[in-house]
Amino acid sequence: MPRPTPAQLAYGSCTVIFSTLAMLLLSQTGSGIGIAVIALAALALGVLVAMTVPLPVPRAAARDAEAEPGPQEAEAARHVPAQSRRGSGRRVPSKL
């Protein structure tokens, strides 16, 4: 499993803090069990948010993905008529 990025840590931590505060204020619980349930729910929500933050793509992999046409583009290029690949097919009269 890859290490979390700084963005994942920041998003997850902010989610835990703000969701805990919001749930505690909205529920107005005072019991220890209620606070523990809210803390666990906020922690689970923070982990979920941190794991759904997209991971950065390495630059070399992104450059290679742009350079190589995918199977759909290669298939589409194969079915393009030869006339449209070379030009319009009309002859331009040459000036003598």
Silhouette: rod-shaped
Q: Radius of gyration, Cα only, in angstroms? A: 28 Å
Structural class: mainly alpha
Q: Regarding quaternary structure, how should these chains be classified?
A: single chain
Strand content: under 5%
Question: Characteristics of this structure?
Answer:
single chain; mainly alpha
Q: How is the topology of this model organized?
A:
Layout (H helix, E strand, L loop, with lengths): L5 H22 L4 H21 L6 H9 L3 H8 L3 H5 L10
Helix pairs in contact: 1-2
Explained architecture:
With 96 residues, the protein is mainly alpha-helical. It has a domain at 1-57. The protein is built from five helices and no strands. The protein has helices at residues 6-27, 32-52, 59-67, 71-78, 82-86. The protein is rod-shaped, with a radius of gyration of 28 Å. The model has no long low-confidence stretch (mean pLDDT 78).
